[in-house]
Amino acid sequence: MMKAGLILLAVAAFALSAAASAQAADPSGAVPTGQGPALTLREGDIVKITFPGAPDLNPPEPLQIRRDGKITLPIIGEVMAADRTPSDLQNSLIGLYSKQIQSKEVVVTVISSSFSVFVDGAVLHSGKITVNHPLTILEAVMEAGGFDYNKANTEKVSVIRKQEGADKYTYYTVNLKAVIAGKRNDLFYLQPGDMVHVPERFAWH
User: In the structure, what pLDDT confidence band is assigned to residue 163 with cuts at 50, 70 and 90?
Assistant: First the structure.
C-alpha cells in the first residue's frame, strides 16, 4: 500500500514538473482556468443514436466507435464520430439525414466509455480510478472517497492533461466549490490519463 502511494506521488511530481516546464516554454505564460473542454467521443466508446421524429431510423443496438473512429448508420453509411462532441455529431447527423427527418432532432447518448484517471491530494482515497462511463472532475473526486474537508481547497482543484503527441501538459484550475453550491452548472469532463489534484488550504501555524 505504501509502495503504491509512493509511485502515485512520483507520477504526480513528474506531471507537475512537466506542466510547469510546458508553461515556462509558452511565451504567453497563459494557464487555462475554469471549465475544460466538453466531452469528446473516442474510439471504443459505445453510443446510442435515436431519431425521436423517425424511430424507424434508430439503429437496433448501440454502436461502438471503431478503431478508425467511425460508426456505420442506416442509409448514410460510415460517419466519423471520434474526436467530436456528442452535440457536434448530432448536428452532423441532422444534416446527413435532412431528407429523411422532419423534426430536425437526433439524440446521441454515450452508453459506455472505459478509461482511467488519477486523483490525489486532499481526498480520502488517492489513486487510480477506472470507469466505463463519461466522468466529470467532481465525480472523480467522489470516486476517490470525496474531499478531506479538514484540508481541501475546493476552489482550486487542478487537472493536469498531457497533450496528445507532445511532451507537454495543459493545466486547468476548477472551482468545485461553486459547482457544489449550484453556482455553476457547466461540467468539466475528464479524458484518459488526466490527473486530478485537490490542494490543501493554506493555514497559518
Answer: confident
Q: For residue range 76-101, list pLDDT tens digits in order.
A: 999 999 999 999 999 999 999 999 99
Helix H, strand E, coil C: the string for the chain is CHHHHHHHHHHHHHHHHHHHHHHHHCCCCCCCCCCCCCCCCCCCCEEEEECCCCHHHCCCCCEECCCCCEEEECCCEEEECCCCCHHHHHHHHHHHCCCCCCCCCCEEEEEECCEEEEEEECECCCEEEEECCCCEHHHHHHHCCCECCCCECCCCEEEEEECCCCCCEEEEEECHHHHHCCCCCCCCECCCCCEEEECECCCCC
- Specify whether the CB–CB gap between 171 and 94 falls below 8 A: no
For residue 188, give the nearest of 144, 141, 151 by alpha carbon: 141
C-alpha cell at 127: 489513486
Going along the chain from its start, the domains and CATH numbers come out as 46-112 (3.30.1950.10), 115-205 (3.10.560.10)
For the record, the C-alpha cell of 172 comes out as 486547468
The span from the CA of 189 to the CA of 35, in Å, is: 9
